[in-house]
Design brief:
By secondary structure, this protein is mainly beta. It is about 5% helix and about 45% strand.
């Protein structure tokens, strides 16, 4: 923010945040005085009020990347709290996006059939899981990236 103001030949005035909040880089300006676009003399101090952006409760999607250390394909599964859903194979170096059901906690599991004793590829058996990731689905949420190592 200071670089934007200095580029406009303005100065930082008072910075206010919600009580008890320490300034972090992820905060955004929600109010300023003078108002954006107002014509003011060079050197004018600009007062700002900062707040953290609203966080969504969950994720709408998960981007999966297969970075398996042995360069093997994995079988991707999603458990939505009621049933398992086969998401197909994910080859080494491939990427796949999995959408999450809104309002449900989902577990995404990568099954490695190359593991010792992995005959059936059942995702609910922990000894067959290469990795797992859980998240709350939220259609208005963002996405995240998970690497299968």
């Amino acid at each position: 923010m200071p670089s934007i103001l200095s580029a406009a030949k303005l100065q930082v005035g008072n910075i206010s945040t919600p009580p008890g909040t320490i300034y972090y880089g992820d905060m955004q300006v929600v109010e300023q005085s003078p108002a954006p676009g107002a014509r003011v003399p060079e050197g004018t101090k600009v007062d700002v009020r900062l707040e953290r952006p609203a966080q969504s409760a969950g994720l709408s999607a998960v981007d999966l990347i297969n970075d398996h250390q042995d360069r093997r394909s994995v079988q991707m599964w999603v458990y939505d709290g009621a049933q398992w859903s086969d998401q197909g194979s994910l080859g080494y170096g491939e990427t796949k996006t999995v959408s999450l059901a809104s309002g449900r906690v989902s577990t995404i599991v990568a099954v490695d059939r190359g593991l010792v004793g992995c005959n059936d590829g059942a995702p609910q058996n922990v000894s067959r899981q290469r990795s797992s990731f859980g998240a709350l689905g939220d259609s208005s949420g963002g996405s995240t990236t998970v690497h299968v190592l």
